[in-house]
Amino acid sequence: MKTLVIVEHNNDSIKQTTYSTVTAASKISEDVYALILGHNLDTAVDELKKCDHLKKIYLVDKEILSKPIAENFCDEIVKFLKDKDFTHVFTPSSTFGKNLSPKIATELDVQQISDIINIIDDNTFERPIYAGNAIAKVKSNDSIKVVTVRSTCFEPCKLDSQVEVENMSSELSKNELVNFVNYDESKSDRPELTSAKIIISGGRGLQNGENFKLLEGIADKLGAAMGASRAAVDAGFVPNDWQVGQTGKIVAPDLYIAVGISGAIQHIAGIKDSKFIVCINKDEEAPIFKFSDFGLVADLFEALPVLEKKLQ
Questions:
Q1: Average pLDDT, the chain
Q2: 214: part of which helix (H) or strand (E)?
C-alpha cells in the first residue's frame, strides 16, 4: 500500500493540518508520499522536507497553480495518480480538503470518506455523525480511498527528517470554466484558530460586538486566539472566520475558554477534543457546564475584568 498526502499551504509555509494528516497516513502504511502544488514554493518545500514519516515529496511548481483553485488542483492530481499506484489519497478536513477531495473522488469514480477521527485498518475508518453524538465505523472496498482527516484527532508529525524532493512536469492549461477573482484573507497578530494552543471564545451572552473587546486583553496576556459561537457570528458581532463549531472550525487547543456560550451541541462538536474546557456563564443550567472541566457561574461583565487583572 502507498498513501499520498495532498499538502495544504499558502505558497510560503505549510499549514499545521498537513502535519497531522501525514501522521494519519502513516497509520495506513510506511510508504507515505506528499504532493505539493503551487508556485514559488522554495520556502514551503524546505519546511516540508523536515516532515517525519514521508518517503518522498513530489513537487509541481507552476504559476497557474499559485491560487488554490480546486478544479486546477484536481486536474493535476488525477493526472499524477494515473502514473502511480497509490491506494489512499489523504487531505486535511479543512476548507482546502473539503473543496478538493470531492472533486478528486468524482474524477476517480470512488466514494469519499469524510472527516475521519480514527483508523481501524487500511479499509476501515471511524468518523463522527449527528454532531459528534455517535461514531460511525465505515469500510470502503474502493481501489483508491479518498479520505479527509480531522486534523485535531492526530498529533502533528515531528520535523526532524530530510526528505527527497522530485520535481514533476506539468502540462496543465487554464481552466476556462473557473477564474480566480480575489482572495480576501483576514490579518491578525493572534494565532490561527485551528492551530492555537489557547482559545477564548465569546457567545451571544456578550450582547454585541463591542463587548468582545473584553476578551482581547485576556487573549493578549494568554497568547490566545479569539473565537465565537455561531449565535454570535449570525448576530453580526464578529466575522465568520471566528466561528467555532460543527459548521465553523473544529479546534483542539490545550485550553478552551467559553464566555457567554450556552453550549449548543453544534458548538460542543467543534471543541470536544480540547484538553481542558473552561466556561463562564451566569446561567448555571447552561449545557456548557456538562462538558467543561472547570466552570464559573458569574456575570461575565464582572468576571472578565477581574480575570484580566489577575493574569500577569
A1: 92
A2: helix 213-222
